[in-house]
Amino acid sequence: MSEITVRPLGYAAGASVTGLDLRTGLRPEQREALRAAWREHLVLVLPGQDLSAEQLIAYTRNFGEVERNDSVPYYRDPDHPEVLLVTNKPRDGKPSQTRNTGRNWHSDLSYTNRPAMGSVLMCKEKPPVGGDTMFANMYMAYETLSAPFRAFLDGLHAVHDITLIKGFERRDPAQIAELKKRNPPIAHPVVRTHPETGRKLLFISDRVRSFVGMTEEESRPILDFLNRHATTPEFVYRHRWEINDIVMWDNRCTLHIALPDFDQTKLRHMMRCSLLGEPSGYVIQDDAPMDEQAARSAIAAVS
Ligand SMILES: O=C(O)CCC(=O)C(=O)O
Ligand SMILES: [Fe+2]
């Protein structure tokens, strides 16, 4: 087996990793090299890895506990609930419900109480052009804010809401009702410290409705600014897929978006495994913003 080679692909994030055959298990030193590269580059690209569902799950297990996708229990591989199919292949003659997955900037499963730690996505079929995925570096987003603005954000909580997934309202009505029931709005800290790097980062996205204790009117302009700032081109790595690319990203310190810039009559078929994140956040019981006292009690109740 040849040596692992890590080659940066972008300034903000992204590195390719070659010299590994992921169909077989990793040696401890290979796993450590991958973890170190992941910490440094946030997004790793492993080209030419033609894995079965079992092999993808086994590979993902190297980095933590694999999510079973119970918060969004559709389009899982029938034999492997750990594998979510992100695909525009029609099923039973109906359009796929995951054909527009990831069309606004987000961190996977941030609308749950275990936001995904990381995700591992493998490309099986792709259109001739387009269908790229972009990733933004949330350390940079935080570090480039002014000190007073960082101080304002420190200690704030943001309400993540599954209904803000782009195109959510166009899903099947029964699915909408079920997804809302399973995933009530949940508040997470806006500024978090990455447990492995110790660096602070911004944890917001297009799927945030408001800040806890603030009205939507007060929150909206700040959220719009933060989302625009966080996804500025210099913080972004854009991935152009090849078949059998595996791309893995750290959801704790990146946002991503899947672009619909391709001919939708061409197949795009991806398999995804996600890593279970640390418990975080507290459920917002109704749509009204919580006052600070209620928020403090809720935080105390879960910590
Ligand atoms: O299809 C893609 O490129 C990414 C979709 C997405 O957001 C995801 O799989 O988490
Ligand atoms: Fe995603």
UniProtKB/TrEMBL annotation:
Stored SUPFAM superfamilies: Clavaminate synthase-like
Any one Gene Ontology BP term: sulfur compound metabolic process
Superkingdom of this protein's organism: Bacteria
Keywords: Dioxygenase, Iron, Metal-binding, Oxidoreductase
Region Disordered: start-end pairs: 87-109
GO MF: metal ion binding; taurine dioxygenase activity
Domain TauD/TfdA-like: 6-273
Record-linked InterPro entries: AtsK-like (IPR051323), TauD-like_sf (IPR042098), TauD/TfdA-like (IPR003819)
UniProt GO cellular component terms: cytoplasm
Residue stretches of biased makeup (Polar residues): 95-109
Family of the protein in this entry: Belongs to the TfdA dioxygenase family.
Name of protein: TauD/TfdA family dioxygenase
Organism: Achromobacter aloeverae
